[in-house]
Amino acid sequence: MKKTSIVLLTIFFLISTVAFCLADEEKDHVCFRELDSDQDDLVTFQEFEKFYGNDRNKFNDADLNEDGKLTHDEYHDLLGHGSQ
Questions:
Q1: Distance (Å, rounded) from C-alpha 31 to C-alpha 4?
Q2: How far apart are alpha carbons 24 and 75 in whole angstroms?
Q3: Which of 39, 71, 44 shows the shortest CA–CA distance to 56?
Q4: How many domains, in total, are found in the chain?
Q5: 34 is in which domain, residue-wise?
Q6: 14: buried, middle or exposed (CB in 10 Å: 19+, 13-18, 0-12)?
Q7: Does a structural domain hold residue 18?
Q8: C-alpha distances in angstroms, 43 versus 38, 49, 50, 66?
Q9: How far, in Å, are 2, 18, 72 from residue 30 at the CA level?
Q10: Looking at the domain assignment, is residue 52 inside a domain?
Q11: Better-predicted residue by pLDDT, 54 or 21
Q12: Is residue 54 a part of any domain in this protein?
């Protein structure tokens, strides 16, 4: 029961986050900035997992240059709504 609740809450959070980002084209940048807690224009796995959990495969799939950090473009390509 506890594991099911955690999975459902995670799915709800992910759907809500994507919906929020897609609601307004300008919001895609805000979403990246929220992840980028140290505001260095890169998202580390530690920043990523605060919102997406311990999904190392998803992070690695998005990290196209395999430097251990997501750029703005890599992050938005992951979400499927492009980059600017």
A1: 27
A2: 17
A3: 44
A4: 1
A5: 2-79
A6: middle
A7: yes
A8: 9, 10, 11, 13
A9: 32, 12, 11
A10: yes
A11: 54
A12: yes
Tokens read off for 59: 């992070």
Three-state secondary structure readout of the chain: CHHHHHHHHHHHHHHHHHHHHHCCCCHHHHHHHHHCCCCCCCEEHHHHHHHHCCCHHHHHHHCCCCCCEECHHHHHHHHCCCCC
Q: Are 8 and 14 in contact (CB under 8 A)?
A: no
Whichever domain contains 37, its CATH number is 1.10.238
* Predicted confidence (pLDDT) per residue in 11-40, tens digit: 766 676 655 555 444 444 458 888 899 999
Question: Is 36:52 a contact under the CB 8 Å cutoff?
Answer: no
For the whole model, what pTM was predicted? Answer: 0.60
| Domain membership flag for residue 84 | no
